[in-house]
Amino acid sequence: MFPRIVISYIGLMGDDQSIVFLDRETLGPGVQLRAPAFPHQWQEYAATTPVQAGARAGAATILITNKVPITRGLLRETRELRLVAVAATGTDVVDLAACEEHSVAVCNVRNYAATSVPEHILALMLSLRRRLSAYQRRVRRGDWQRSGQFCFFDEPVTDLAGTTLGIIGTGSIAQALGALASALNMNVIYHSLSGRELPDLPLVSFDELLNRADIVSLNCPLTNASRNLINRQTLRQMKPTALLINTARGALIDLAALEAAVLTGEIGGAGIDVAAQEPPAPDDPLMRLCHLDNVLVTPHSAWASEASMQALADQLIDAIEAFVAGREMNRLV
């Protein structure tokens, strides 16, 4: 659930709105952003550094960001700002408390990737369990030919059917993933970090999930409480054959602890689509892990199917239009 902070706004129609998109390049080049249906001026930047953000946001009444941090300091540099529209679901880049203090509304987009992300997670699980990266490498270097056999199977292949998927999170993506896994005859269990009660879901404690799951998937928001949720201690609670999948936020995992756990065989492998710093630095543990056959690293692309990105763009403009018309949509502040 999203925090709900209520601030009253008078409809803004009648004045031209100055809309600034700080990081338009975070949406694919094929994504179409329709013009909002009210008088406005539109300015977009491919990318914006924190140093550039103040000057670019200064005169905006509506600010769009995906990854550019909206901090208390940045808000002090704005003069007319009324709305921060986040082109994502996660709002960890926005200081919500500071926005409330400055009477700036905040909205996000929701449920746009409930097909794309679960499918990506399923692809990671299947690829890791069936050792596709290892087999591709072996075929390329000629091991199949040298074996002299019609098939080559010196990498262990494990079915998903009958195994247990532990999903940390209970939102739309988590539930869509659970449905896909159930269709493959996997046993699915969930844990809610917020204590959310959903009678239709098999909810278990965090410790039980780590102990039972053959695959653990992180599908929860990043908060102060969930930062480094997966660490040296929690990794030791997982099965030595278990896989860890993260398509949520990079800082949910202590990557140094994950690297040690994978290298020592404490867990079976990992599929990672996000990093605490994106892109990761060359010496980041993630860049060392990606060379291992039992680790798959993708560049924060789980959400980015063409259909999902266009749905995000359409909903983003819908939410902005709703705000200007005096209606609430996807509001957090």
Strand order of the largest sheet: 7-6-8-9-10-11
Question: Mean pLDDT score, rounded?
Answer: 93
Report how far apart the termini are.
14 Å
CATH architecture of the largest domain: 3-Layer(aba) Sandwich
Kindly report the name of the CATH homologous superfamily of the largest domain: NAD(P)-binding Rossmann-like Domain
Number of strands: 11
Helix coverage percent = 25-40%
In the CATH scheme, the class of the largest domain would be: Alpha Beta
Assembly annotation: single chain
Q: What class would the helix/strand composition place it in?
A: alpha/beta
Short description:
The protein has twelve helices and eleven strands. With 333 residues, the chain is of the alpha/beta class. The chain has two domains: 17-112 and 307-324, 3-Layer(aba) Sandwich (Rossmann fold), CATH 3.40.50.720; 116-297, NAD(P)-binding Rossmann-like Domain (Rossmann fold).
State the main characteristics.
alpha/beta, Rossmann fold, disordered N terminus, five-stranded parallel β-sheet, single chain, 333 residues
Explain the overall architecture.
It is a single chain. This protein has 333 residues and is an alpha/beta fold. It has two domains: 17-112 and 307-324, NAD(P)-binding Rossmann-like Domain (Rossmann fold, 3-Layer(aba) Sandwich); 116-297, NAD(P)-binding Rossmann-like Domain (Rossmann fold), CATH 3.40.50. It has twelve helices and eleven strands. The strands form two sheets. A six-stranded parallel beta sheet has the order 7-6-8-9-10-11, with helices on both faces. It has a five-stranded parallel beta sheet with strand order 2-1-3-4-5. Helix 4 crosses helix 7. The two termini are 14 Å apart.
